[in-house]
Amino acid sequence: MMPIGTAQLVGMSKVFTWFSNPKLRLRALLIAVLLGLVLLLFSLAWTALLPFLVGLFIAYLLMPFVDFFDRRMPRFLRRWGMARPIAIVVVYIVTIGAVVGILSYFIPLVANQVRQLIDLAGSYIPRLEQLAAIDLDSYLERIPPNIRAAIDANIRQISTTLATAIQRGLTLTIRTVSQAISFVLGMIIIPFWLFYVLNDKAAVQRAFYQLVPEAVRKDVYYIGRIIDDLLSAYIRGQLLLCLLVGAMATVALAIIGVDLAIALGTFAGIFELIPVLGPYIGAIPAILIALLDQPIKALWTAVAFAAIQQIENIFLVPRISGNAVRFHPAVVMVIVVVGAQVAGIWGLLIGVPVAAIFRDVYQYLYLRTTERGATPEMAMETLRARIL
C-alpha cells in the first residue's frame, strides 16, 4: 500500500513531466511571453480592441444558433463546404431582421419617453435655484476675518484646480476623438470579422489546444467546458430575464396608468442585469414617477414590482437560467457589493458569474489533486454530480 500522499504525487506527476523536457520548457516560456505580449497589447490598444471584444461576446451568443442550423443543413452543402457559411448568413438575416423590426418601433417610443422624463426632471431646477439664490455677501459679513481668509484661500485653490481640470479635459478630449475614430473603424469591420470567427470555430479550437502541453490538455478542455456551461446559462438567462421582466413591468405600469411606462419598463429590464439588487433598483424610478402623480399609484406600482419579483424567483429563474451560479441570495449580495468596490460597474455586472467560475474551477482542481489521483474525466463527472 502506498504511503499517504504518494498516490497523489503519482496522479499529478504526468501534469508536470513536460518540465523535464528542454523543448517543452521552451514552449512553455514562449507561451508565457505570448500571453504577456497579448496583455500588453490589450492595455495599450483597449479602445481599438473593444469592438472585437464586443464581437466575441456576440459570437458567443450566436454560436449555438449557428451550430443548430449547421447540423440541419443538407448533406450536399456539407460536401461542398457551404453548410456553415449558409448557416451563418441565415442567423445574420434572422438576427438583423428581428433587431431592426423591434428597434424601429421600440426605440422611437423609448427615446420620446426619455425626453419627457428629462423634461419632468427639469421641473425641479427652479426649486433648486430658489434654494441656491441666497445673499452670499451678507453671510460672509457675519463670518470672522480669520475664517473668511481661509474661505478665500479655498476659493482661489478651487479656481486653480478648475483651470488645471479644463486643460486636462481638453487633452483628454483630443485623445478621446482619436480613440473614437479607432472604435468606429473597428465597428465597421466587426460583421466581416465575426463571420470568420463563427465559420472557423473548429479550426480556432484546434489551434488553441495545440498550444497547450499535451499533459494538461484534457484539464484545459474540461475547465473550458465548466466556464462555457456556466456562462452560457448565466448570460443567455440574464438577457432573457431582462426581456421578460421589462415586458411585464411595462404592461403593469401601463395598466396602473403610470406615465412613461415604456421607458420605465425598459429601465427595469436593464437593471435586471444586476443580480438580486437590480430588480429593487429598477423599481425606484417607476415608484417615484407614480408618486408624483398619485400616492395610490405609487403603492400599486410597488405591489406590481413585488409580484413581478416573485414570478421571476418562483417560475422564471429556475427554468431559464437553471440557477447557474448556485449561490444563496445573501452570498450574491456580498459578491455584488465587493465586486462594485473592486471593479465598479463591471464588478456589479460580472462579479457573480466570475465568482461562480472560480468556485467550480477550484472544485475541479481540488478533485484532480485528491490522494486517489482522480482523472480529468472522473473529476468532471464528480463535479457534475454535485451540481445536479
Give an overview in words.
The protein starts with 5 loop residues before the first helix and ends with a helix. The model is unreliable at 1-12 (pLDDT under 50). The protein has helices at residues 6-16, 22-44, 46-71, 75-79, 83-122, 125-132, 136-141, 145-199, 201-211, 217-256, 261-271, 278-293, 295-320, 329-368, 376-387. The radius of gyration is 28 Å and the shape is globular. It has two domains: 22-72 and 137-211, no CATH class; 213-388. Helix 3 (46-71) packs parallel to helix 8 (145-199) and helix 14 runs antiparallel to helix 15. It is built from 15 helices and no strands. It has 388 residues and is an all-alpha fold.
Quaternary assembly: single chain
Reported for the largest beta sheet, the result is: none
- Pairing-aware structural class of the strands and helices? mainly alpha
SSE string: HHHHHHHHHHHHHHH
Mean pLDDT: 76
Give the beta-strand count.
0
Low-confidence stretches: 1-12
The total count of helices amounts to: 15
CA gyration radius, whole angstroms? 28 Å
Q: Quickly count the domains.
A: 2
Strand content: under 5%
Portion of residues within helices: over 70%
Global outline: globular
| Measured distance between first and last alpha carbons | 34 Å
